[in-house]
Design the sequence.
C-alpha cells in the first residue's frame, strides 16, 4: 500500500504528491469520497429511472429500485478502483533510468480486518435487503409455485367467476404455453381464451401459468413478470400494472425450434376499457369457449374427454382413449 | 519429416477440419427448404397460393411423417417445402387440399377460424367420388367430431385456420398413400377436403413463421417431435416482400 512506502513523498509541479506516501492516501480518500457521492447521485437519480425493466408495474418498479440500490453500492467500488488506477498511472510512473524495485508490501492486519468487516457487512445487508424486496412486492413478479405465500396486500380470491375494478377480489389471468404460442384465459369472464393479453391499470393481477406440452417461461418484460410454464403445474405470479401502454410477452425458456418466434404483444388499459374489452371478447368467443375444457389450473392434453366418441366412430382402438398411443416407445 | 513438410501437413489438416465444419454447418444446420415465390404471380392486389397436406411424405427420408406441400406457381408441380413468398399489402387466397385424416386439437381454442376474411374458411368435402357443396365454417368441435387434420396458423399475423378433414371411417381408411397426392401418383381422387380462405398481408417486408397447432408427430413424446419440430413438414415461413 502507498501508506507503507518508507520514502518521503515528493511534491510535483502542481502541489500534488508524485512519489507516494501518506499524502497520496489523503488525496485519494478525499477524491474518492467526493467522486463517489457525485456518481452515486448520478446513478440513482439520472441513470436509475432508465434502468430495466422500467416502472410500468409494482414488480417492475421494485426490480428497478433494487438495481438502483445495487448500482449505488457498487459505484464507490468502481470509482475507487478507477481512481486508484488513474492515480497510479499519473503520479507513480517509473522515472527514466530508474530500474529499482518498488518497496515490498507487508501485511496489514488492521486493514485486512477493516476490509473483511466492511465487505462482510455489505453482503449481509444485501442479503437482508434482497429477502425483504422479494417478500414485500408479492414475490417481485416471479413465479411462486402453485401455493404462493407472498400475495398483494389487501387482495383476496373472493370469486373465480366474476371480477370488477376497485374491489379486493384479484383479477385472475391464466397463461397457457404451447409450442409456439401463448394463450390467455380469463376465468372471471366466462373462461374465454384468447391470444390477446389485456390488463387493467392499477389493479392487482394474479397470473396462473401452465403449459400444455414442454417447459416454457412466461416473461412480460415491461411488467417485470417472469414465471416458468411447466406442464401439469400451476405457477402463480403477481403484479399490479401502474401505467397504460404496450407490453411484450416472450418465452424465456428454450422450448423448441421456433422458441424465438414465441412472443406476442399485449396492452395495459384503463379499467373501463378493460371491462369493455373483456365483455365484448367474452361474447365474441362464446362459440369456441363452450368447446374448451372446464377451467382448471392445469390441463392434461394427453387424455381428452369425449374423444371416445370419435375413436368409436373411426374404429380407432390403439390410443386407448388417450391422445397418443401408449405403446409408442418414446412415450414416457 | 522436414520442418516445412510438418508445417505444411499441419496447415492442411487444420484447413481440412475447418472446411469440414463449414460444410456441416451450411449443409445440415443452415439448410432450409426451398422458397416458392408467388410474388411475380400477384395481380390486382391478390395472389393465389395452393398447398396440400398428406398423411405421409414418401418423397423424403421420413416417409411416415405428415407434411405440407406447396404448389410451384409456374410449373404447378408439388414441391416438398413449407416456405413461400407473397407481396405486401395483398390478399392471399389460400387453397389447401387436405389429404390427411382427422386428429383432435390439443387445445380446442385453435378450432376457431381467425384472421381470415369473414373469419371463416370455405370447405368442400370429397368422399372419393363426388364433392360436397362448399360451406363456410367458423368453428370446429374436434372433440365431438372427426373434423380437422392440421391447422395453418401464422401467430404473427393473427391467422389461424383449422384444416377440415374427411369425416367418416371409410374415408379415413382410404386416404392417399403416396405423396404428393396428385394425378401422377394416382392418388388425386382419394378422399380429401378443399379448404379455401383469404387473409391480408401487412405493409412492409417481413418473415412470419407459420405452423400446425395439432401435435401430429405421432410416435414422438406427446406428438411434439418429428414433423412438428422439423422445417419443411408442419412448420414453415411466410416471407412478405415489399
Sequence:
Amino acid at each position: 500500500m502507498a501508506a507503507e512506502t518508507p520514502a518521503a513523498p515528493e511534491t510535483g509541479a502542481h502541489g500534488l504528491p508524485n512519489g507516494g506516501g501518506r499524502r497520496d492516501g489523503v488525496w485519494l480518500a478525499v477524491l474518492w469520497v467526493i467522486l463517489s457521492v457525485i456518481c452515486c447521485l448520478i446513478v440513482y437519480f439520472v441513470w436509475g429511472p432508465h434502468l430495466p425493466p422500467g416502472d410500468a408495474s409494482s414488480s417492475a418498479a421494485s426490480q428497478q429500485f433494487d438495481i438502483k440500490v445495487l448500482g449505488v453500492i457498487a459505484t464507490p467500488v468502481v470509482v475507487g478502483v478507477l481512481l486508484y488506477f488513474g492515480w497510479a498511472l499519473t503520479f507513480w510512473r517509473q522515472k527514466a533510468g530508474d530500474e529499482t524495485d518498488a518497496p515490498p508490501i507487508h501485511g496489514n492486519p488492521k486493514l485486512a480486518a477493516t476490509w473483511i468487516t466492511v465487505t462482510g457487512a455489505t453482503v449481509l445487508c444485501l442479503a437482508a435487503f434482497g429477502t425483504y424486496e422479494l417478500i414485500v412486492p408479492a414475490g417481485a413478479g416471479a413465479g411462486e409455485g402453485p401455493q404462493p405465500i407472498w400475495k398483494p396486500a389487501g387482495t383476496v380470491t373472493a370469486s373465480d367467476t366474476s371480477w370488477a375494478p376497485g374491489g379486493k377480489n384479484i383479477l385472475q389471468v391464466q397463461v397457457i404455453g404451447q409450442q409456439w404460442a401463448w394463450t390467455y384465459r380469463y376465468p372471471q369472464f366466462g373462461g374465454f381464451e384468447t391470444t390477446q393479453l389485456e390488463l387493467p391499470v392499477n389493479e392487482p393481477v394474479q397470473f396462473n401459468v401452465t403449459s400444455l406440452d414442454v417447459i416454457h417461461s412466461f416473461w412480460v418484460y415491461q411488467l417485470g413478470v417472469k414465471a416458468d410454464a411447466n406442464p401439469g403445474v400451476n405457477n402463480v405470479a403477481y403484479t399490479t400494472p401502474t401505467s397504460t401502454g404496450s407490453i411484450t410477452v416472450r418465452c424465456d425458456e428454450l422450448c423448441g425450434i421456433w422458441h424465438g418466434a414465441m412472443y406476442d404483444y399485449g396492452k395495459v388499459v384503463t379499467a373501463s376499457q378493460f371491462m369493455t374489452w373483456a365483455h365484448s371478447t367474452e361474447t365474441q368467443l362464446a362459440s369456441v369457449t363452450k368447446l374448451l375444457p372446464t377451467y382448471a389450473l392445469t390441463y392434461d392434453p394427453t387424455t381428452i374427454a369425449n374423444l371416445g366418441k370419435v375413436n368409436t366412430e373411426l374404429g380407432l382402438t390403439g390410443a386407448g382413449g388417450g391422445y397418443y398411443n401408449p405403446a409408442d416407445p418414446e412415450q414416457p | 519429416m522436414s520442418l516445412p513438410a510438418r508445417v505444411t501437413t499441419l496447415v492442411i489438416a487444420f484447413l481440412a477440419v475447418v472446411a469440414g465444419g463449414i460444410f456441416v454447418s451450411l449443409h445440415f444446420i443452415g439448410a432450409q427448404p426451398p422458397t416458392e415465390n408467388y410474388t411475380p404471380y400477384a395481380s390486382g392486389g391478390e395472389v393465389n397460393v395452393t398447398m396440400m397436406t398428406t398423411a405421409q411424405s414418401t418423397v423424403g427420408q421420413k416417409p411416415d411423417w405428415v407434411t405440407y406441400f406447396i404448389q410451384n406457381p409456374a410449373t404447378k408441380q408439388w414441391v416438398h417445402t413449407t416456405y413461400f413468398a407473397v407481396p405486401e399489402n395483398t390478399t392471399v387466397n389460400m387453397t389447401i387440399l387436405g389429404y390427411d385424416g382427422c386428429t383432435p386439437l390439443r387445445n380446442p381454442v385453435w378450432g376457431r377460424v381467425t384472421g381470415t376474411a369473414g373469419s371463416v374458411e370455405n370447405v368442400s368435402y370429397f368422399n372419393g367420388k363426388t364433392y360436397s357443396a362448399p360451406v363456410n365454417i367458423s368453428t370446429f368441435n374436434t372433440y365431438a367430431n372427426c373434423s380437422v387434420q392440421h391447422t395453418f396458423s401464422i401467430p404473427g399475423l393473427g391467422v389461424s385456420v383449422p384444416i377440415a378433414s374427411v369425416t367418416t371411417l371409410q374415408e379415413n381408411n382410404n386416404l392417399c398413400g403416396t405423396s404428393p397426392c396428385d394425378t401422377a401418383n394416382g392418388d388425386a381422387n382419394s378422399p380429401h377436403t378443399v379448404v379455401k380462405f383469404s387473409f391480408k398481408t401487412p405493409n412492409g417486408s417481413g418473415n412470419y413463421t407459420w405452423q400446425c397447432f395439432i401435435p401430429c408427430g405421432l410416435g414422438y413424446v406427446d406428438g411434439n417431435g418429428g414433423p412438428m419440430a422439423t422445417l419443411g413438414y408442419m412448420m414453415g415461413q411466410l416471407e412478405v416482400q415489399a
Observations:
- Chain A touches chain B through 42 residues (CB under 8 Å).
